[in-house]
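I am writing to request your help with a piece of structural work I have in hand. A protein sequence and the structure tokens that stand for its backbone fold form the material at issue. Please examine both parts with care and let me know of anything in them that strikes you as inconsistent. The record follows directly beneath this note.
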Amino acid sequence: MNIEQNQIEKHNDSLFSSHQRKIDFLKADWSHVDLESIIRKLVDFQIAIPSWALGTGGTRFGRFAITGGEPRTIEEKIEDVGLLHGLNGASGAISLHIPWDIPQHAESLKSLASSYGLKFDAMNSNTFQDQAGAPHSYKFGSLQHVNKAIRKQAIEHNIEVIKHGIALGSDALTVWLADGSCFPGQLNFRQAFENTLESLQEIYAALPENWKMFVEYKAFEPNFYSTTVGDWGQSLLYASKLGKKAYTLVDLGHHLPNANIEQIVALLLMEGKLGGFHFNDSKYGDDDLTAGSIKPYQLFLIFNELVEGMDAKGMNHAKDLGWMIDASHNVKDPLEDLLQSVEAIMIAYAQALLVDRKALKAAQDNNDVVKAQEILQNTFRSDLRPLLAEARLRAGAALSPIALYRDLDIRSQLVSHRGNTVATGL
């Protein structure tokens, strides 16, 4: 379904007086900062929505569908992302997962996406599940497998994903491997690494010149004794061996407890090997919770390093890294959940943009620990939601996306149109 511009304008008119008071106060409070340039950066910043997050997720014990109206096809998933983008002006891309969402008619999909102002972000392969009709199982791994025929099947799948991406206008491939071992002695670590590297090299050779390969890592699950790409160092090692088009991808949930993700990000960016992000949040492990719902200060600290590092390298904040949500929770309306995640990510980005870099550098150079902390926490504790709302207003989106979503009763409209459906894919 479409949200009409007049519906957004009516919503914005009802909130404009309150918004204007808040943004005027913020501008007065931050009069020493060029807020106009920050608003422009917020308007430009886009966060890709994964096709698998548009339906309810689940746990190991079950999947609890919402009231219905979940997308049944790729076309309906594009419509849902278009709906999100219409509401927040910051969800301008969709990321497909193959074979959950195999595009059959690339040109018509590109045309549909374009009508919503969307592009196709990184393509995602899947060798962590056995696929219908496939001759081989990935029970004991895919790109690492001791059986060359199984490795070949996984390689060919990734190359197929690249071909789909070329047809859609994507320019990146994300590879996440569930490969590893559950028990000591199950595999030879060195051989598993070498097999994986050789497999990745074949996939890398199939990349178009303007493409990137993102190598994702995870310390645990589904294998609990070892994973073949278990941390950022192993991912960096693969990316370095593969070549200039290969990068590390950071999923915020793919770390051991208390890992200093902001330091990881800073060093990968310094080395020119940070490719992008999968945003989510967690309390215990890879919980895939709404971004910023558990550890908002950590999210801000990550963006603080990102903004400082990107500016040091003269990078374009909106285009030079891949920004994508990877969340899937099972007790919320997924569209509302995604709106909340995008809001949290944008807030953290805005906070990082407002950090007084000159004062922070002086405090660091003087070993003034208290001052450095105060600079960061002063920005973090400031309510920057009016700044985001102003960016949305200028982008033609809603001042309060979730409020408008609920006022229009969009979920009920989707149920009325689609019925009691459950999304395809995951």
